[in-house]
Hints:
The chain is an alpha+beta fold and 154 residues long. The chain has one domain. It is built from three helices and five strands. It is rod-shaped and about 100 Å long.
Amino acid sequence: MSNINKQQGSTLVEVLVAVSIVALVLTAVSAMMSMSVKLAESNEKKQLALQKVQEALEFFRKERSINSWHSFSTPLEDGAVYCVSSLPEAVASISASLGNCAEDEVLEAARYSFKREATVNFNNSNNLNVQIELLWQDGTKARNLILEQGFENY
């Protein structure tokens, strides 16, 4: 008869400890998932930024390869900044985009907005550098990516 009167079960303290542990684990998992989503979005923006910078450099490489040095370098001004939110038809028409990008001159890629600017610097009459800078907002932080390419008269 003594075995029948014994009841086994969890006390209130044990239940509270178990619920607290489960809540702690779920909080950690949800924080980790949230951080993972933010990191994935940030990496997507960086990858798109690199793609758009390379796209602009490829435009200048293409123009240099199909034009003579004079046709390529003459339309470009030393120390000039060009807004290349969209790529021009040819380097000869790039002067239309002379100056830094305005607030409304953005490059849309996926669902993100970027500003893409090219800076041209002549080292001498037979050598110039083109620097492409892409600017974007990543949450509250301003980000940028810069790539540079040298061109020579060959």
